[in-house]
Amino acid sequence: MTVVIAAINGKGGAGKTTALMNIAGEYALRGGRVAMIDMDARNNLMKWWTDCQEKDFQPEGIDVYSHKTARGLGRWMEEHADAFDYVLIDTPGEDTSIVDPVIAAADLVISPVQPSKREVTGAIDCFESVLRVNEASGRNCKHGVLRTRITVTVRHTELYRKVRPIIEDKVGTYLFRTEVLERNVYKDIHNGIGTLQMQEVTEAIAKARRETLALVAEVDALLGDEPAAGYVA
Ligand SMILES: Nc1ncnc2c1ncn2[C@@H]1O[C@H](COP(=O)(O)OP(=O)(O)OP(=O)(O)O)[C@@H](O)[C@H]1O
Ligand SMILES: [Mg+2]
């Protein structure tokens, strides 16, 4: 069965594209066939992909496609999704009409937050859309909030401390235990040098890899999947 994961937060810049690139890299490393769909008109993901190809750092096991409409996505899913183990859908950082159809196609929606009030609100809006689409379609798409770009300074803010009680107790969706820290390597990989998993292992890369492995283990647990063969935690 193809697993479909989407990154959605209508309040932009939260780390959607970066999170999906890292998750894709991990699944590909395990031998999974991964498709990524760029639904953002700014084409960040597609640009990364063409840069990687031009620089000869094309990630093995990952294909990137561009579809900007619900119809285009729907057609692609019908015709091609079966050929992949994972389909990762990247969405624009603004409220758009594609949110509901993407949720309707997804098994899991991840809402990254930095955390700022805007982005936490965006994540909550997204969860509400997931509930609504589930109700209408009778499906059970999961939702989780992922804290990204975390620094020591951020950890001292009041909002950071409130994220867990807000997300888990008040709103009632899942908060990933794994936090994605602010790391230079996550910026660097946007420059067409392949995935995180393709970088030469330095101490900094090893930390980012461990973080990503922990995130993917949580994703798998949420989806109720057994780790694929060859996976080493
Ligand atoms: N954990 C991180 N550490 C350092 N830099 C990061 C991290 N996550 C994202 N960035 C940087 O922040 C910028 C925005 O991240 P990204 O493109 O993943 O966000 P996005 O949610 O996809 O944004 P948009 O809504 O504009 O598509 C990128 O340039 C990326 O390099
Ligand atoms: Mg993006």
TrEMBL record:
Gene3D superfamilies: P-loop containing nucleotide triphosphate hydrolases. SUPFAM superfamilies: P-loop containing nucleoside triphosphate hydrolases (SSF52540). It comes from the Bacteria. CDD domains: ParAB_family (cd02042). Pfam families: VirC1 (PF07015). PANTHER family: COBQ_COBB_MIND_PARA NUCLEOTIDE BINDING DOMAIN-CONTAINING PROTEIN (PTHR13696:SF96), P-LOOP CONTAINING NUCLEOSIDE TRIPHOSPHATE HYDROLASE (PTHR13696). This is ParA family protein. It comes from Tianweitania sediminis.
